[in-house]
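Human: I wish I could look at a protein chain and see how it folds. This is the protein in question:
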Amino acid sequence: MTLWSPAVTRLSIALALVVALGAPLDAAAQQETAPADPAAPEAPDPGGIARDFCHAVAAASRCRKAVTMPDGTEARLAEEAGARLRGDDSPTRAACSAGYAEFYASQGRLGRDEACSGVLALFGPAGSRRAGLLAPRGKPKLMLPEDEVAAIASDLCYADQVAKSCSGLALSDGLGARLAGQTGADLRAEGGYFAAECGNGSFAASMARGRTSMEAFCADGLARFGLAGTDRAGFLTGNAPGVPATPVATSPAADPTTGLPRQALVVLTALPPLPIGKTAEEVLGFVPGGLPAETCAERLAVRTRNAAALAEARTLGETTRLAVRLAADIKLTEAVCGGEAAEMPDAEAAAVATSGLEACHIVLEETDALGDAITGYLSDKHYRAMLAMEEARSWALEAFAPACSSLTERRMTSALRFARTRLARDRKTYPCLAWQNFIRDEQDAVRALKEDGAWMAAIERLDNRLAPAIHGLDAACDKQNYVESNTKYWLFQRRQIQADMAEAE
């Protein structure tokens, strides 16, 4: 007999549902609780790869003595990123520029040595950000001071270019091995420790060869590096036919096929280096951001008069005023006029300061006048002259500070604090700005010459004024992107002028 009730029926239905749905529910639960499959490797980030690579490239360029980039690094990373990492047509061009800027910012913030040390921690063999982009460069065990070896390497590679260019001349037998033994380094090794210095020497030789006749170039090389050479005797042997025994000074010779000076035909791929031991200012013969020659002549004459008057001063007020003015004359003429070095009037300032008499009100009057001069020089964009006046003002406020009474001490302290702060700030800004303004003016002049068809004059201006100015910019500015952009534009202008000359043939 079967018992039936509504409760039993409901229980049977519920059990049937559990049986029917149990398997799918269990499967779903298993799917939810099962351990996840190992994650697939993340897709490469082309932008990040380009940024790190270009950061490392900038470091390898600026830290040649400390790091090197292993061969094949760029090809390996380009394959990983699936695109070119740098260049105008690279999809990661912006990221690459950011990488360059990142290194140059760290160099400006930390200084070159510390920035070069830090880059290995990021990209060295065990780099924390992207290992293997850079490797430490071991320094050879040198037998001579490094700067002396660098000069020898430059001269050796210059002489090598002379030997390759001049029939009848050759490097002395065994010269490379002899110098390696004397210095402790292979001076001409490709990618070696002194590769940059060697490249500078080779480049200087190519520039010299383009600026004069071949006979004069060979004669000069023989006079400098021959058996009785004035620079490095014994680097070269032989005697090129038709080469005079002494250097011959000539104007740039014309190429027999084009009639153009040879210098105009030299195709450059890098900025010409400064002559060894010369600054950009020395090559140019003046200081950008300085003063006109006639103004400098006047200031030098004023300096002489003030020095004589200070020696004859009899009163404290006269001594104080003349000491401040002479300090300004000395700072100004030494900085921008090529004036001979002179002693600052420290002794006179010390005598006033220890006299026990109040002199600070006079100093403050004189430094206010210097402030007016600073404003004027700034308005006229004579930035170096402005900085010289700021240095003179700081000197005066500090040197005469002990001569203050309680009435002037607070004002003097405040003025000195302001002067020091402004000088520290402006020293970082205005030398760089002076070079930028000069370069801009020179670029305008080159464009004007080009438009007039004065191609050779334009190239001479590029080589003799703009190229040294870019080196000056490099020395004065922390922002290396300024240097890179101006160098690229310099090379572009030179090639464009050469192309215009070729089209006009």
